[in-house]
Amino acid sequence: MDNIENNDCLMRIRDTYGSLKKAEKKAAQYILENPESIIHLSITEFAYESKASETTIFRLCNKLGYKGYQDLKINLASTIVKPVENIFEGIKTNDDMYIIMQKVMNSSTYSIKKTISENESSEMERAVDLILNAKELMFFGMGGSWSVALDAYHEFIRTGIPCVCNCDSHWQIMHASMVRNNDVIFAFSTSGSNKDLIDSIKMGRKNGAKIISITSNNKSPLQKISDVILTSYGKESMIRSQAMESRITSLILVDCLFVGVALKRLDTTLENINKIRSAIAVKRY
Fold this sequence. Notes:
Elements: H1 9-16, H2 22-33, H3 35-38, H4 43-50, H5 54-63, H6 69-80, H7 97-118, H8 121-132, E1 137-141, H9 145-156, E2 163-166, H10 169-177, E3 184-188, H11 195-206, E4 210-215, E5 228-231, H12 245-264, H13 266-281
Parallel strand pairs: 1-2, 1-3, 3-4, 4-5
Helix pairs in contact: 2-4, 2-5, 7-12, 8-12, 9-12, 10-11, 12-13
């Protein structure tokens, strides 16, 4: 590409448009006409909306000089999103701390309400049933999603169901290779597109595991291989690489699932909670 050093994503597309194939032009045209919506779409959603295949989109990204679709979205966001909104959407550089607190709290509250409305109680109940039938629970997450996976592990060990938690892709696929029928793997991924995580999930599914996924993109590669897909809404998640609100809403979904399972295993869970409290007590003054 002649103008590859150009950092403006939209300008790159315009400069390259004439040399693109017909299918690639269809995808490129959609980006030019809907730049703000693109940064909120998974590649599966983009393919559906633009009526172009995922393969065509990958090919377009390559011709534009990007490593992949996520790389294109990051560069597109840097073109159309105000720099300060990479910190938090809606924040202004001259906001004082009181206004910052109000904006962050209001935005998080909206995301929590949106998460509750977008997840059917029947799907939550299905997830609870899968957990109750499992001999072991595995919690997989990478990058920022690792902290959510670890928190989920920290909660579910109280149920008495054996648990494993890991953020390393090699360890994850090793655990996935040894699952038993109906064991449950929790997959945490804001984008739903992490290749290493998806490889591990595919391995687990092949060996009989049930997959419960918590993601901000319910139309993503992860969705295609999940038994239950739960949506952790966060309107910032496709703009910032480290999503704040979707992390909060993911934790709330985990809390809901834990309470649902704990009520079905009440005596065992209460016994374990008391054991843990007694053990922790010796660590405190």
